[in-house]
Design brief:
The complex is a heterodimer. By secondary structure, chain A is an alpha+beta fold. Helices cover 27% and strands 25% of the residues of chain A. The radius of gyration of chain A is 28 Å and the shape is flat. The chains are: A alpha+beta, B alpha+beta. At the A-B interface, α16 and α19 of A face α8 and α13 of B.
Chain lengths: 714, 325
């Protein structure tokens, strides 16, 4: 059996190199075809009738007029009379028609009588949600009561971070053709290998009958794993339209209201510490909503990272509201609990008249990886000039612009998912690698090619890679930062297996056995005797007419040292706040992140940039605004659902924490950890700048000025 | 979008003939940066859309008498880049620059800026311009962080979206409006309207009227500036804007105009601030006092008291910018 371990750091030729992503030029030139660009011949257009009410019952539904419109190919009722609708934009009916315009007209021609029912859409005030609150029960460790009584200092604070949406620029949707017993499926998905299974289940057909294709995706962030009602509905519309492909994508407002959100978290926190900053107790009451289902916050993560505090009391309440449900959002739970924890620790440090950097350092024994965080805190502090630039709370500089520093902490798993890969070596020397994975824009294609070419001793471009099709060997969904660990491992295994077959074929001619050979610099040579060698082409020619085709399987239960889990990260932010306008500007965010073996540091940096940019948006401007009286989301658009533009982002500096120790842990995922500490770091920097905590995010002029003036949120 | 007939006249006269007695008969299309989204959202659903693109007489910026004439179809970018505008009206250039999207500056027009509908999210979500439910305002106790803090005692609580309105009012500009019965001229301040009843709109314009031009009097010796508070550097609506025009007597202010944007259903004249400025030279202290005077009498709603703070700073900074301090 080949040795699957990744080659040692010092002898890697391609892994570890800053190679630009292979699909960059196609994307930059607009040549990359996203599935929302796919429109096979004969495509008809789907549209959905969404509920205008937050809570209602369908009394009657009449589709006769819609059916009569010329060009309409199918009309379907989703919510039959009697159905109780629990959120605005829930699906009532669907239509397919020759053009998008006709489909929309047909949707408007459907007559629905609604019985309007009372709704609740806001959860920020726990005292106003009544019976919609579902307390999860109390978790206690140690003796918090006694610890608070005996503590040198205590701090109490309120913190809030609102519901935000995934806001995928390519909305959820697909083109799908269901003809006979075959379904051709082009979804926007994070789950190429299995999303077709999910569709098949919904359609009650065999999984093997669904063929899924996807080359590019315009954003998922955790919200695109399933085929969804829209996929199933589009398939049924296709069948009822005589097998014509149906293209159905959500409009912006439904995209922001029913295609997934990140739950809010509101918290009342009490902390107890010794005079020297040693944390002795944590008490939190948190509540949140993830939509009608309530949704879960893993409150047991509190206090985040510093979880081994000896005395804890955790209470958590989920609130059911009449709004679309939550979905996994880049590091589920973590950005919110990182904010709540780091903000409370920063406030405690202020009360102790202590530098929060020292307070974090002081308490690292409460974390799972003290040495890693110690080193990362120190590296990040050097990058941002913490020791030189940090000042106690409240910048005393004259004038309205106040500057401050803040820090945030993160942790994540990120072990590789189950993945299979097929590697082929052809007699003409060409190499193909195939996986049913997807590249979310993270650089998965590039990384796979690096691992494959490294293993085979070939140049990077010698590998022809095919992904994005469920007829290829199955690979896991891209969620939880599991992709890079999984695909790197399966690629390493498959290409090693294929190479061994090539060694077997050429060993006799080189007077060696297969174990005595190595693939280096485009040659197959005898280990220790490079004069006995064949070029790659010569070696492959020995295969005659037979292509080598070998599979590799990464099993997370037996990772063979190729992947592991558990990473840490520290981010620090430098912000300026105009205390007259309340406008917060990011000067700089620095990140130090360990992530095992880094296959491509350029792509890794790029991932962290993306994570920080999402964090900047969340810290400064993102917020789903619900109106209690009308039950509507008021900013389900790209105008008042604010995202940062380039000028709003500030400078970003990333340091991947690459050490022999981290490297030896194998390949670990980076998507989620990179976004976790950003919000905490920015919020703390703002508090440091202006001298008061802005308890509820985002840091809008309103929230900042209200905090400065001591006004409570309305 | 509801299907409509599209007309592209080449003269104002022809355009007038294509308009109707109701806004549902016909709507004007200038740059389309607002109208197209109103059509898509079916907030407007006219039988006919009348494009003004090919009406030559509506374009261009030129000298006229002592001042300038800005055609209603002059784009935001043309206003921003015009040497005539740059020479005397920094206030207009700054207002244009606040529209932080080259695409919108290239398409959006001066006339369109004045006639655009409010960005009130209740209105945009089909809850009505006055946003009433069962006789009660949705806005007063609702999500009103972007809403009015002046002129909000009636049912209208939205804010005027116009970027140029406050600057034009401060500069004493007039607007020429034509209808089938002739042409009339009015102060830009009188163009805006606070609706009291359903069916009224944000301007006094009727469905068969067209703004043809904006006449801005000379601003020689008038120090003027616009300062807007915006959260984002990228495209974002101002939270509050202030435009000032100071007719100077030597180093002190002879007379002043202080006009606020995004605080009321119309551009809002801060008369107390204006009158306290006369006879004074603009210092940091005087500017701050004028800001405080401008904020007096504000009637914030449940969640927008912060905008009162913003009025103070916007006026202060506009005054300091006007005198180059």
């Amino acid at each position: 059996m080949p040795d699957y371990k990744y080659p040692p750091m010092e002898s890697r030729k391609l892994m570890g190199r800053r190679i630009s992503r292979v699909d960059g030029p196609q994307k930059a030139a607009g040549k990359a075809k996203y599935n929302s660009d796919v429109r096979p011949a004969g495509t008809v257009h789907g549209a959905i009738l969404h509920s205008p009410h937050a809570h209602c019952r369908i009394k009657s539904i009449d589709t006769a007029d819609a059916q009569k419109i010329a060009g309409v190919t199918a009309v379907r009722v989703i919510a039959k009379p009697g159905t109780e609708i629990q959120w605005t934009n829930q699906e009532i009916a669907s239509v397919a028609a020759r053009t998008e315009e006709i489909a929309r007209d047909a949707v408007r021609a459907i007559k629905v009588e609604y019985e309007i029912l009372p709704h609740l859409v806001r959860e920020d005030r726990l005292d106003k949600v009544g019976s919609r609150a579902k307390p999860a029960g109390e978790v206690v460790t140690g003796d918090p009561e006694e610890a608070f009584k005996m503590a040198d200092v205590t701090h109490e604070g309120d913190y809030g971070i609102p519901v935000i949406t995934h806001c995928c620029l390519e909305p959820h949707g697909q083109t799908v053709a269901w003809s006979g017993d075959k379904v051709e499926f082009w979804p926007s998905t994070q789950n190429v290998s299995a999303v077709g299974d999910d569709l098949a289940k919904g359609l009650e057909i065999p999984a093997a009958n669904v063929h899924t294709h996807m080359d590019y995706i315009g954003g998922g962030f955790g919200s695109k794993f399933q085929s969804d009602l829209w996929g199933q509905e589009a398939a049924r519309l296709s069948k009822e339209s005589g097998g014509k492909p149906v293209k159905l994508y959500l409009d912006r407002a439904p995209e922001l209201t029913i295609a997934g959100v990140r739950p809010s978290v509101y918290a009342k926190v009490k902390l107890a510490a010794k005079k020297d900053g040693t944390l002795v107790a944590w008490d939190s009451l948190t509540w949140m909503t993830g939509g009608f289902g309530g949704g879960g916050l893993n409150a047991d993560l509190l206090p985040y990272v510093f979880r081994n505090v000896p005395n804890r009391r955790i209470n958590h309440t989920a609130v059911s509201v009449n709004s679309g449900g939550s979905r996994a959002w880049r590091a589920p739970n973590h950005p919110q609990v990182s904010y709540v924890t780091c903000a409370a620790l920063e406030d405690l440090a202020a009360k102790l008249d202590m530098d929060p950097y020292d307070l974090f350092m002081k308490n690292l024994e409460l974390t799972a990886r003290p040495e890693v965080y110690k080193s990362q805190l120190s590296q990040a502090a050097d990058m941002i000039g913490w020791k030189k630039n940090w000042h106690p709370r409240g910048d005393k500089t004259k004038g309205p612009i106040k500057r401050g520093l803040g820090l945030g902490i993160g942790t994540w798993g990120g072990a590789g998912h189950a993945s299979q890969c097929r590697a082929k070596i052809h007699p003409d020397g060409s190499v193909e690698v195939e996986l049913g994975t997807q590249d979310l824009g993270t650089g998965t294609r590039t990384v796979i090619m690096q691992v494959a070419a490294e293993t085979l001793g070939l140049p990077f471009n010698a590998v022809k890679l095919t992904i994005g099709d469920n007829s290829l060997p199955r690979s896991g969904a891209s969620g939880g930062s599991t992709t890079v660990g999984g695909v790197s491992a399966s690629t390493r295994i498959a290409t090693s297996n294929a190479l061994e077959k090539l060694f077997e074929a050429v060993a006799p001619g080189l007077g060696s056995d297969k174990d005595g050979l190595e693939a280096v610099d485009g040659k197959i040579q005898v280990k220790g005797n490079p004069s006995k060698s064949l070029t790659w082409k010569q070696a492959c020619a020995k295969l005659g007419v037979t292509t080598i085709s070998e599979e590799g399987r990464h099993d997370p239960r037996n990772p063979r040292g190729l992947s592991t889990l558990g990473v840490g990260g520290i981010q620090m932010a430098d912000v300026s706040v105009d205390v007259e306008t309340g406008v917060v500007r990011i000067n700089k965010v620095v990140a130090v992140q360990d992530v095992g073996l880094v296959v491509n540091p350029k792509l890794a940096d790029s991932q962290v940039h993306g994570g920080i940019i999402m964090g900047v948006c969340g810290a400064l401007m993102e917020e789903r605004v619900m109106d209690e009286m009308s039950g509507k989301c008021l900013n389900a658009d790209m105008e008042f659902y604010k995202l940062a533009g380039i000028a709003d982002i500030g400078e970003i500096e990333v340091k991947m924490d690459i050490t022999p120790d981290h490297d030896s842990r194998g390949v670990i995922g980076l998507g989620e950890p990179s976004t976790i500490p950003t919000i905490a770091a920015i919020a703390n920097a703002a508090a440091n700048a202006i001298g008061v905590r802005v308890p509820t995010l985002p840091l809008t002029p309103r929230n900042v000025l209200d905090a400065l003036a001591g006004r409570r949120m309305a | 979008m509801q299907a409509f007939e599209f007309a592209s006249p080449t003269s104002v006269k022809e355009a007038l003939g294509l308009l109707g007695a109701q806004f549902s008969d016909a709507q004007l299309l200038a740059g389309g940066t607002d109208q197209i989204s109103l059509l898509k959202e079916r907030l407007h659903h006219p039988k006919r859309v009348v494009s003004l693109r090919n009406v030559k007489e509506l374009h261009g910026i030129k000298k006229t008498g002592g001042g300038i004439r800005i055609g209603a179809m002059a784009t935001v970018d043309e206003v921003m880049e015009s040497s005539l505008v740059r020479a005397e009206y920094p206030s207009l250039v700054q207002a244009a620059r606040g529209i932080a999207s080259p695409q919108i500056r290239n398409m959006g027009t001066m006339g369109g800026d004045l006639c655009q509908r409010t960005r009130c999210w209740y209105y945009r979500n089909h809850l009505g311009l006055l946003a009433m439910k069962d006789g009660k305002s949705l806005v007063a106790e609702g999500q009103n962080e972007y809403h009015a803090i002046f002129g909000n005692s009636g049912p209208a609580k939205f804010v005027s979206a116009s970027s140029f309105g406050p600057a034009l009012v401060a500069l004493g500009a007039t607007v020429t409006v034509v209808s089938p019965s002739g042409s009339r001229s009015m102060k830009v301040a009188d163009l805006f309207h606070t609706p009291k009843e359903r069916g009224e709109r944000e301007t006094v314009l009727k469905s068969n009227e067209i703004i043809t031009e904006i006449l801005v009097p000379s601003a020689r010796g008038v120090k003027n500036a616009t300062y807007e508070v915006r959260q984002k550097q990228a495209l974002d609506w101002p939270l509050v804007a202030a435009s000032v025009a100071l007719t100077m007597k030597g180093n002190s202010v002879g007379s002043a105009m202080v006009v606020l944007g995004h605080v009321a259903p119309t551009p809002h004249m801060a008369s107390a601030a204006a009158s306290m400025l006369s006879g004074k030279s603009i210092t940091e202290d005087v500017a701050a006092q004028a800001g405080a005077a401008a904020a007096q009498g504000a009637t914030p709603l449940s969640g927008n008291t912060y905008k009162v703070d913003l009025v103070k700073v916007a006026v202060k900074r506009a005054l300091l910018a006007a005198v180059g301090a």
